[in-house]
Amino acid sequence: MTLTAPQLHPEYHHRALLHRGPEDLATRIGPTLTEAFHRYEPVHLSLALDEWTALRDLVGPIVDRAESLAAPERYANPGRAMAAIHDFVQRATSQGAAAAWSVGTVQIEGDAHRDARWARYESAVETILGLTPLKGICVYDVNAPAEVLSTVRRCHAYLDEPGVGLRRCTEHRPYQHETVHWQHREATPVIDTTVTRASQIRHDLSETLHDVLGSSRIDDLQLVATELVTNGMRHGDGPVTLRAWDQGDQVVIEVSDSGGGIDDPYADLRPQRGGANGGWGMWLLGQLADQVSIGRESDRTVVLAALRRS
Predict the structure, then answer these.
(1) 3-state secondary structure of 100
(2) Which phi and psi angles does 32 have, rounded to 5°?
(3) CA of 137: how far to CAs of 32, 46, 302, in Å?
(4) The dihedral of CA 17, 147, 154, 11: what is its sign?
(5) DSSP class of residue 278?
(6) Percentages helix, strand, coil for the chain, rounded to the nearest 5?
(7) Domains of the chain
(8) Are the beta carbons of 217 and 259 closer than 8 angstroms?
(9) Half-sphere exposure of 150 (CA within 13 A, CB side)
(10) Tell me: the pLDDT tens digits for 192-213?
(11) What is the pTM of this model?
């Protein structure tokens, strides 16, 4: 799917920075952030502890002006990561800031399937935040897997590499949405049913998958499934079906219907789109699920969500 390009804010800038370790990272971003601090532009840092320490050692206590959220906490999942930076930029602009800086170390695991969630996140940044004065620097180790670095180049208009410096990325392919191939589909689902009542789904999920996720996460799973099923019943066409897979350390659910589809493939990443009459379901999905995919298959709307054991 190719999305419509937004009219970008003149201050918007999204780059990937590849580095060779904390000291190299600090040397590369230190001067830029020091200038931003001196201009009193808000800065949000989500770095590993050794990266933050190296940066502070280089630029000094001025770095304490930054708003900081540890990388593992900010990047707990794509929905929370997007909500955090969206909230930061909105607060900055409401206070009159001309630009707002975000520097974050994306939490790559080295598993191509699981890291695909961050490819989707990076692809969504420009679509969701392109109208804001965000200056985003996404930080990756130069030794990340080749497929990760290929995605990094596709998802960023600018690339800053060791020995090369900052340049426009010729491999950039903006507004390209890809539906993730989910490997779980090669296995037999533990639940495969046509849904008539959301309450029955909650019961089935608890009975079948409680031992996989535990009490707190089974509640999250039930909420995600209920929201997706309700959304399909209200806005789609029947039949609404739900399938679920037990993958040992996580549960994957798939909800589909015959409606015209969700017009926004990043609906789960757009913060707080609901109101008094509802509309919070997709946002809740993004906050609770570790990985999401929204797409169309065989004339059906298909939403997949993975929740890991806590």
Answers:
(1) strand
(2) -65, -45
(3) 11, 10, 32
(4) negative
(5) B
(6) 45, 25, 35
(7) 13-168 (3.40.50.300), 183-308 (3.30.565.10)
(8) no
(9) 6
(10) 999 988 888 999 999 999 999 9
(11) 0.91
